[in-house]
Amino acid sequence: MSTTPSTGPAARTRETGPVDGTAPSAPPQDPTDKDLDILLKQLGNLVTPMAVRGAATLRLVDHLRDGATTVGELAARTGTHAPTLARLVRHLVVTGVLAGDGEDGTLRPTRLGLLLADDHPAQQRAWLDLHGAIARADLAFAGLLDVIRTGRPAYQDRFGSPFWEDLSAEPELADSFDALMSCDEDLAYEAPVAALDWTDTRHVLDVGGGDGALLAEAARTAPKLRGTLVELPGPAARARRRFAGAGLDDRLAVVDGSFFDPLPAGADTVLLSFVLLNWSDEDVLAVLRRCVEALEPGGRVVVLDRADRDGDGSDRFFSTLLDLRMLVFMGGRVRTRDEVVGLAADAGLALVGEGGSGSSTLPFDFSILEFVRAPGPAPSAKEEHHHA
Q1: DSSP of 274-318
Q2: Pairing of strands 295-306, 366-373
Q3: 153 near 330, Cβ under 8 Å?
Q4: Cβ distance 235 to 168 under 8 Å?
């Protein structure tokens, strides 16, 4: 399954983070020790991020907009303990998310707080909802120190199963994840499909393609194209529903399975869409070697992913934020173009084409790398490969 990012207006906020995940304000040009002390307290505390997530999960802003402007009314709407909710509200007022007095009926969201409305295009409420896939997974950051010590992701230790297996088994979590990842499909799917040449493509093997949105867009763009998607049972079932609903199930098939196991053979294009960043280098090599095994002679492997680029300010902040999420959730990482090309070479692939966010069709830090089999025998995948 892939972590296809959301895109479009306010995408920088949506894809990596919530209100508490945006880059902190820079200190004054000549900060005093007091300025730096305050900044460090803002950066280091866990209270405010969890308070904001609590407000998002309880839909406080939506209730305020609906007329519940006192703590008592909010407590009745949310089924919470009013005196305790009042303490949460007080901190949200101090931090600028809410304004007014929760006792006299003047409580209201600030301009910042309005980002937590369920219908706001930035979708911050959904990103921060502790019942949703991403905010829930963020709780695994409590184990960050162990991750740094061992290099192993923390998600399974906290929740009992790896991230993707958890989503495959829990429909509500999967639905929340898909909703976050499928915003503005014209950018998330149409733009990458438009950037690729499908003229000579007969059969696409979409490896770990989630609910099949990208493969469906490719099939709509190239009416003669046929495809097969390989996914875990949960997303595979959602892909079948998508293809049937779009009238594409006569051309697009779905196979339940893991991309660490042998893949269906016979494709002239193998597609890896936002898959590699979810995995360690060892796992990426195993996946790429399976793709090489499944590829027809003369075919191509297309890698659509996020690119780690040099930058500063918010661009670098968001890149490192996503990178740490990949580490803690799954043991993955955001890679540079050269790192992906190097892993592909180790798997027996040679780069023949590329595109990136500098093009007129790809948004933000998306990148496309196209590979073919390198001359000589391809390294084989490990049959006994196991992924933890």
Answers
A1: S-GGGS-HHHHHHHHHHHHHHEEEEEEEEEEEE------HHHHHH
A2: antiparallel
A3: yes
A4: yes
Q: How confident is the model at residue 14 (pLDDT cuts 50, 70, 90)?
A: very low
pLDDT at 361: 53
Q: Angle at the Cα of 376 (from 203 to 285), degrees rounded to 5? A: 65
Tell me which residue has tokens 């059969």: 203
What distance in Å separates the CA atoms of residue 249 and residue 268, rounded to the nearest whole number? 20
Architecture of domain 14-178: Orthogonal Bundle (1.10)
Question: What angle in degrees, to the nearest 10, is found between the helix axes of 213-221 and 233-245?
Answer: 30
Tokens of 11: 């995408």
User: In whole angstroms, what is the distance from residue 232 CA to residue 173 CA?
Assistant: 15
pLDDT in tens, 245-259: 999 999 999 999 999
Domain 183-311+331-373 fold? Rossmann fold (3.40.50)
Contact at 8 Å (CB) between 56 and 45?
no
Alpha-helix residue ranges (DSSP H) falling in 45-81 = 47-57, 60-65, 71-78
The answer, yes or no, to whether residue 15 has pLDDT greater than 60, is no
Q: Which residues contact 213 (CB under 8 A, 6 or more apart)?
A: 4, 182, 185, 188, 189, 242
Q: Where are the domains of the chain?
A: 14-178, 183-311+331-373
H helix count then E strand count, the chain:
19, 9
The helix (H) or strand (E) run that includes residue 155 is helix 155-159
SS3 66: coil
- Could you tell me how far CA 245 lies from the centroid of its own chain? 25
The rounded percent of the chain whose pLDDT value lies above 70 is 84
Query: Residue 225 pLDDT > 90, yes or no?
Result: yes
Other CB atoms closer than 10 Å to residue 175's CB: what's the count? 16
Greater confidence, 196 or 311? Answer: 196
Which has more pLDDT, 383 or 72? Answer: 72
Model pTM? Answer: 0.83
- Burial environment of residue 66 by CB neighbours within 10 A (0 to 12, 13 to 18, 19 or more): exposed
pLDDT tens track for 120-176: 988 999 999 999 999 999 999 999 999 999 999 999 999 999 999 999 899 999 889
Buried residues in 246-263 as b, exposed as e (16+ CB within 10 A): eebeebbebeebbbbeeb
